[in-house]
Amino acid sequence: MNKVLLVIQREYLARVKKKSFLIATLLTPLIFPAIMGVFVWIAVNESENQSLRIIEVFDETGLFFMESSDQYAFVSSDLELEEAKKMVQEGERYGLLLIPKINLEDPKGIQYFGAENPSMSLMSYLEGALKRKIEDQKLYEKGIDPAVIKEIRTSVSIQSITLSEGGEEKINDATVNYALGFLAGILIYIFIFVYGNQIMQGVIEEKSSRIVEILVSSLRPFQLMMGKIVGIGAVGLTQFLIWVVLIGTLTSVVVGVLGMQMPQQQAIEMASPELAQAAMPDTEVGQILQVIQGIDFVSLVVSFIIYFLGGYLLYGALFAAVGSAVDAPSDAQQFMFPITIPLIVAYMGLFVFVLQDPNSTTSFWLSIIPLTSPIAMMGRISFGVPFWELSLSVGLLIGGFLFTTWLAAKIYRIGILMHGTKPTYRILWKWIRTSQ
C-alpha cells in the first residue's frame, strides 16, 4: 500500500507543480465568463452598428404586406422579376422574396433569392411572418376580422413548482436545469477524455523510455497502474475543487455588487423565511433568484465528484491498458475506438434524450449503464432523480470500475514489458486469458 501511495504522490506532485496546471486552474474560471462577455459585447455592438437590410418583395398575389423589423426592411417591388434578381446580385438589395399566386390552403412555391446563404433566423422570420399573413387572409375570407383575433390572443406564462415528498414547494425553471445538466455533463465528458489521455500518454512515455522496467523491479505492475490512475485523478479533482471555490467566490462578489443578496435580506431570511418570501419582488429577477436558491448545489457538487471519480476510474483503467499495449500513440488509435464509442453515445444521448426528457426510458437506461451513466446522470441530476435510481447508478458504476480495473490489470501486467510487438485484439485476448 505504501508503494501505491508513493506512486500517487509522484504523479500528483509532478503535475500540480507545473506552471501550466496553475495557469489553467486559475484562469479557466475567468476565461469562460470573459469569452461569454466578449460574445455578448460583439452581439450588442453588431446589432447597434448593423445597417438595415433591404429585401425586395415580389408579390404576384397583391395580398401580402410584409412589416419591417429592426433588422430587415421590406420593399414592395414594381420591377420585373429579372431586374429584381439583378439588384440582389449587384448588392443593391439584400434579398428577394418571391410570392407567386398560391393556394392559401396549400401555400407552396414561395422562394427567397439572396447573394449569400440566408441564416436560420432570417428564414424562420420570413416563414413565421408569411404564416401569420396567410392565416389572417383566411380568417378575412371566412368573415372573421383578424384584428379581433389579435385582441383575443393572450400570452401565458406558467410557473413550475416541484412538490417534494415532505410537501415542500420549490420553484424551478427548465432552462436553468437544462443549463446545469448541460454544463455538468460536458465537464464530465471533457475530464474523462483529458485525464484519461494523460494516463495513456504517461504509460506510453514510461514504456518507451524503459523507465517502467526499473519501476516494476520494486513494485508490482498493478500497483504502478493504480498509483498512476489515482494520482492523475487526484489532479483532476483538485482542479475541479479549486474551480468550485473560485467560481463560488466570484459569484458571491458579483451578487453582492449587484445587490441581489444583501446582508439585510440574509438577516430577514434567517429570522422569518415567510417574510423574506413576501419581500421578494415579483419580478423576473426575483423569480430567477428564487429558482437559484431552490437548487441544491451541495448535492450537485457531491454528485459531480462521485460521477467524475467513478467515470474517470472506469475509463482510466482502460486508457492505461491501451497505453501499456502499444509503443507509440499512433498505435493506440485502433484500440481507442471501442473505448470512445460509449462516451460518444453518452454525449449524443445527453442532448437528444436526457436534456429533452430526463424521465424517459432511454434517459433512465443511459444513466444506469456504467459506461454512459457519468455523463447522462449528471444531465438528470438538476431535474431531480429518485434516490433509488441514484443509488443503483452509483452501485453499478462502482461495479463497472472494478471490472474494468480487473480487465485492464491483466493486459497491463504483460503489455507494460512488451516491446516491438504490434498488438491486435487477438493478442490482447490472449493476454487476458493467460494472465494470472
From TrEMBL:
<feature type="transmembrane region" description="Helical">
    <location>
        <begin position="362"/>
        <end position="381"/>
    </location>
</feature>
<feature type="transmembrane region" description="Helical">
    <location>
        <begin position="387"/>
        <end position="409"/>
    </location>
</feature>
<protein>
    <submittedName>
        <fullName>ABC transporter permease</fullName>
    </submittedName>
</protein>
<feature type="domain" description="ABC-2 type transporter transmembrane">
    <location>
        <begin position="19"/>
        <end position="409"/>
    </location>
</feature>
<dbReference type="InterPro" id="IPR013525">
    <property type="entry name" value="ABC2_TM"/>
</dbReference>
<keyword id="KW-0472">Membrane</keyword>
<feature type="transmembrane region" description="Helical">
    <location>
        <begin position="178"/>
        <end position="199"/>
    </location>
</feature>
<dbReference type="Pfam" id="PF12698">
    <property type="entry name" value="ABC2_membrane_3"/>
</dbReference>
<keyword id="KW-0812">Transmembrane</keyword>
<feature type="transmembrane region" description="Helical">
    <location>
        <begin position="211"/>
        <end position="234"/>
    </location>
</feature>
<keyword id="KW-1133">Transmembrane helix</keyword>
<feature type="transmembrane region" description="Helical">
    <location>
        <begin position="240"/>
        <end position="260"/>
    </location>
</feature>
<feature type="transmembrane region" description="Helical">
    <location>
        <begin position="335"/>
        <end position="355"/>
    </location>
</feature>
<dbReference type="InterPro" id="IPR051449">
    <property type="entry name" value="ABC-2_transporter_component"/>
</dbReference>
<feature type="transmembrane region" description="Helical">
    <location>
        <begin position="297"/>
        <end position="323"/>
    </location>
</feature>
<feature type="transmembrane region" description="Helical">
    <location>
        <begin position="21"/>
        <end position="44"/>
    </location>
</feature>
<keyword id="KW-1003">Cell membrane</keyword>
